[in-house]
Specification:
The protein is α/β, with parallel strands linked by helices. The chain has one domain (12-150): 3-Layer(aba) Sandwich (Rossmann fold), CATH 3.40.50. The chain has helices spanning 12-29, 45-53, 105-115, 174-180; strands spanning 5-10, 36-41, 60-67, 80-83, 93-101, 121-129, 142-146, 152-153, 169-172. The strands form two sheets. It has a six-stranded mixed beta sheet with strand order 4-3-2-5-6-7, sandwiched between helices. A three-stranded antiparallel beta sheet has the order 1-9-8. The radius of gyration is 16 Å and the shape is globular. The structure holds 1-O-pyrophosphono-5-O-phosphono-alpha-D-ribofuranose, hypoxanthine (HPA) and magnesium ion. Residues 40-43, 67-69, 75, 98-106, 158 line the site of 1-O-pyrophosphono-5-O-phosphono-alpha-D-ribofuranose.
């Protein structure tokens, strides 16, 4: 799988060190709040598991599945909820855990949807932020790494469901997705 990457951006060690730092900061901010930590399936699974493991405060978890990319490197622009939260979030402090903010469409849709359910607060923790991909104005409250405007995979991020299990992150060789278009 490594040969499908053009460039390695972040090693497993770099990611783990940064996620531990983020977890400490988030835990300080949510110390007394018993937050609902919402994992955005499927990409955020690895980040969610690492982040909450290091938070060491009382919290609850829930999961929501959203899809806009499918088997493509471009957002379809249509955000769909494939699996909703199990519990109401009224009056709760909600932390959305995302793998990447790219165009921002997924998160802006999700944040609005959760605020409409009368959450007390809704904040965003993203492992990766791609500011040059943005088409809507949204900034994560906590961000692990800023990434270039290229299609990246690993640490939960996929191309056509592959590469999620890589413990590191890199830029996918364009030849991988260009050949599959034919
Ligand atoms: O900022 P955006 O341009 O909206 O892109 C970010 C979203 O796109 C990816 O999800 P995808 O639709 O690929 O679902 P997945 O997590 O199941 O891979 C990623 O996991 C984010 O949720
Ligand atoms: O760069 C990316 N890689 C994988 N999935 C994504 N979803 C939005 N941007 C990306
Ligand atoms: Mg995806």
């Amino acid at each position: 799988m490594r040969e499908d990457l053009q460039e390695l951006l972040f090693s497993e060690e770099q990611i783990q060190t940064r996620v531990k730092q983020m977890a400490k900061q988030v835990a300080r901010d949510y110390q007394e709040k018993n937050p609902v930590v919402v994992c955005v399936l499927k990409g955020a699974v690895l980040f969610m598991a690492d982040l909450i493991r290091y938070m060491e405060i009382p919290l609850e978890t829930d999961f929501i599945a959203i899809s806009s990319y499918g088997a493509s490197t471009k957002s379809s622009g249509v955000v769909r909820i494939l699996k909703d939260l199990d519990r109401p979030i009224e009056d709760r402090d909600v932390l959305i855990v995302e793998d990447i903010v790219d165009s921002g469409l997924t998160l802006s849709y999700l944040r609005d949807s959760l605020l409409r359910r009368n959450a007390r607060s809704v904040k965003i923790a993203a492992a990766f932020d791609k500011p040059d991909g943005r088409t809507v104005d949204i900034t994560p409250d906590y961000s692990g790494f800023t990434v270039p405007n290229r299609f990246i995979v690993g640490y939960g991020l996929d191309y056509a469901e592959r590469y999620r299990n890589l413990p590191y992150v890199g830029v996918l060789k364009p030849s991988v997705y260009e050949k599959e278009k034919c």
